[in-house]
Amino acid sequence: MVQLVEVEDEHFQSAQPGPEEDDADFTDTDSEISEDSDYDPSQETLAERLYALKDIIPPTTRGWIGARFDTGARAVQNTWFYGSRTVWVVCTAALMIGVPLATCWAEDQQIEGMEREYRMREMGSELLTAGEDQKEGNTADMLNQAIGGKTEARPSL
Question: Where is this region: Disordered (predicted)?
Answer without folding.
Answer: 1-41, 130-157
